[in-house]
Amino acid sequence: MKILRKNLFRIAVAVLGVAALAIFVISVSEEETVAGPKGETGRVEKMIVASGNVTLDLDLDRLSGSNLRSGSTTINYSTRKDTFFTVITFNDELRGPVPSSMELEPKGTSLLPASLATAYRTFVVERAPFGGEYELLIRDSITGRHYFNIEGHEFDFDRAAKTLGIRGGRLLLADEYADDLNRTSAKGAIVGEFSAIVQMKSIEVSEVVNGDIESSKLPPSGDLAGTRPGPDVVVGDVMGLAQFGGAVGDFVGLALGTDSCNYGTVDLNWFANPNNDHPVIPQNLYRVRGGATNDERIEQVGQSSVKHAFTALTQNLCQLGCNGVGGSRLGSGCSDPYSASLNSGPSLGSKAWINPFTGFFPRNDSATPNNSHTGHNHSADPTQHRILTKMNDLNTTLNGGATYYAEGQYVTPHEYAWCVANPTQCNMNNNVSYRRYNVSGTGSPFTFSPVGSTQREKAAITAWPGASIVTFAPAPGQDGIGSVGYKVSNPSPGVYRYVYAVHNQNLERAIRSFAVSVGSSASITNVTFHAPPQHSGSAADGTVGNAGFSSDAWTASRTSEAHSWSTDSVAVSANANAIRWGTMYTFSFDSDRPPTTVNATLGFFKTGEPVTIQVQGPSAPLAAFVSVSGRVFMQNGTRGIGMAFVTITDSNGNVRTTPTNPFGNYRFGNVVPGGTYTIAVRAKNYTFTSQQIQITDNVGGLNFTALP
Fold first, then answer.
1. I need a surface site. Which of 99, 296, 305, 673 has the fewest CB within 10 A?
2. Looking at residue 556, what is its pLDDT?
3. Backbone torsions φ then ψ of 327, nearest 5 degrees
4. pTM (two decimals)
5. Does the N-terminal peptide bond of residue 445 adopt cis geometry, omega within 30 degrees of 0?
6. 474-511 b/e (C-beta count within 10 Å ≥ 16 → b)
7. C-alpha dihedral over 290, 441, 176, 408, to 10 degrees?
8. pLDDT over 70 for what percent of the chain?
9. Distance of CA 691 to CAs 473, 481, 631, 648, 698, Å?
10. Beta strands of 592-690 (E only): which ranges?
């Protein structure tokens, strides 16, 4: 036991060091930047767990993988006094826990499997290092063995009572413990629930005056820092995708953790609400499915409201070399992690207030607050503001072979303000990253596991296998960018499937129509449209009448020149279902015509002329018959050869022959288009090289010159 106490003392000292680091990082740069005021005034408080209770509810059948109906068991713990599980608050708003651990003391005994009979007595709850897939986990403090991960938990901080609740956590079987149980296929399986209510104790308070903490500043971690001119926030990592709360009707609410990294040489403004000079963070979910190889189309199946960032930390997760500036600015090279539980809200703001290119949104203390929750009942509807997703879009039985991609995005006014003052230092179009996830479950709750690493500075549309992606910028320097992905498949003989995905990354003008050029005689069938679900309206949500954005499907129409989809114009309905920033809509149809390069036209919702890009679309029908003609020349290339014999041979070996006239001219009529033909010449005393061509229309000027 003395050894245990010694080890725990070492852990406590290490955790205290990490927590102290998290506090001192919020010192800020004394230099003013383009984006405005010096900073806010407030209080940063570091707290540890003074006392409390923790409960683990284990499903013994799920744990063992048996059908013995062993039922469940509850393990009740009290926390060890003044355990160093550490959280940070700014102006009494929870910023979240920092890497640290909470020591537990069991209350009485519990009947448990042999694999837990001893270990449960020395469990600790850990806040994992930043950037990991899970925020909280449970391990044995003696052996270090990792038993459970925790996901889907929500923090409930009572600023008056200084209590912290952790509720709704799902216990997942950790890889190491699954191996011990010889249940490798059960890794990540849900085996129980986790909850806690603890009393917090303040151990350090720092006063922030005009953006400066009145204590020594954390020194730089190295010589390296950001290298791109200006401020440049990038999603360095996404992690921890999880469901939060239960299902409501056909929907569940998800959230995704994000790590921001400042690749820029200028500290990025991070002033908390009510100030409106800080980043906002939306999250999205996409699915790739369909066709013989399950990659026919990509669809967005979920979108969230936005997290308003506050209190930047000074991690070095992107390995740039943080300069040590934090708090109301994210220092050059520094990174700031937001776990999935922090990004889950539920107090997330509406996207409708935000101009995604300039980053502007109203102050939260204005007549149009950016993050109002008047009239909300988050406990009654846990899907509110989170990544709103239909259960049928996740159900593995209904989506066999589908792959999923979670995407994080940062939008900030400082980058635009800096760009206006420094036109060669504009970094507004690289703030999106994604990561692939596997989904488990046929109903609520669903679980998720990452596949591979985060793809930095790439939108999820680029994950669509085999697709071509065209980026468009309708007004460079005045608005953002979007992209169109397209893919053509041949699901059955004579049928060509055309799928298009239109993504608005940060265009304020939004998109209201999409048209693809098609010939008047091309057959168009099986027309589809897909858009992500919209959040319902709420008080002060920035939509007209607080009604929320429409979910009405776009209208499909056909003219002699194009097939198009469209929604109402802004003049007809300001809440119409336009492709607004951070969303992607998918369109498709089948045709009897093979692909060729055609024009696609995008029409905008708020302002601006349409733009045209090139994609693949149905080709024009071939003529019933075409002709092939040309001339046969002597070596000098000027005099024709009469009575030379020209042959045309199709791919089946059928041969036709015609002689040239006295001037060397020849012509074949009634040639069937759509095939590959070989044309050759025979003439006495002359030699010629044959030509092989694909014939789809009339061919003229197919000439031959005798070899020397």
1. 673
2. 97
3. 80, -110
4. 0.77
5. yes
6. bbeeebbbbbbbbbbbeeeeeebbbbbbbbbbbbbbbb
7. 60
8. 91
9. 43, 46, 13, 10, 16
10. 595-604, 611-618, 626-633, 645-649, 655-659, 665-671, 675-682
